[in-house]
């Protein structure tokens, strides 16, 4: 797993908690905040944005990634995710695949429970992209030789 400094870790956790305020979740009432630390030290926040046509919902993690990528940033150091639930909540399958497209397999993902004190990092579950999506399909697979 790639390591991040304590100040960056704290900054990122605080940003994920803050990002949750941007959630538009009138249907599920489930707020999610995500924050990405970029290679140049920026923090990009995202929240879940739901739709009356439920399938149109976009998760917090994808909001953050699409914001960053569409603004020209594609190099990430870490991701933090926060919800109002008292235990760490992990990204959904679609988000895992989108994270895998842009982030190294060794990149840390911090799952931050509600009521968390970021100064202590108590209760934060830390896993890599590969932990969350083992044996994954990625961009390089499209370049592999195809017999015949
Ligand atoms: O990791 C997750 C899991 C769920 N959601 C959102 C989607 C929907 O708005 C609500 C309930 O599924 O939470 C996220 O943003 N990220
Ligand atoms: Zn998702």
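-> sequence recovered:
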């Amino acid at each position: 797993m790639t390591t991040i400094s304590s100040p960056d870790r704290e900054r990122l956790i605080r940003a994920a908690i803050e990002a949750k305020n941007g959630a538009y979740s009138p249907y599920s009432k489930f707020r999610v905040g995500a924050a990405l630390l970029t290679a140049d030290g920026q923090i990009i926040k995202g929240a879940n944005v739901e739709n009356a046509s439920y399938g149109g919902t976009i998760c917090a993690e994808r909001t953050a990634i699409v914001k960053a990528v569409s603004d020209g940033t594609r190099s990430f150091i870490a991701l933090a995710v926060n919800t109002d639930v008292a235990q760490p909540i992990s990204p959904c399958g679609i988000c895992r695949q989108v994270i895998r497209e842009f982030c190294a397999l060794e990149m840390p993902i911090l799952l931050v429970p509600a009521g968390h004190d970021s100064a202590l990092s108590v209760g934060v579950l830390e896993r890599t992209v590969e932990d969350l999506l083992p044996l994954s399909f990625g961009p390089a697979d499209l370049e592999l030789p195809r017999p015949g």
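DSSP finds four helices and five strands in the chain.
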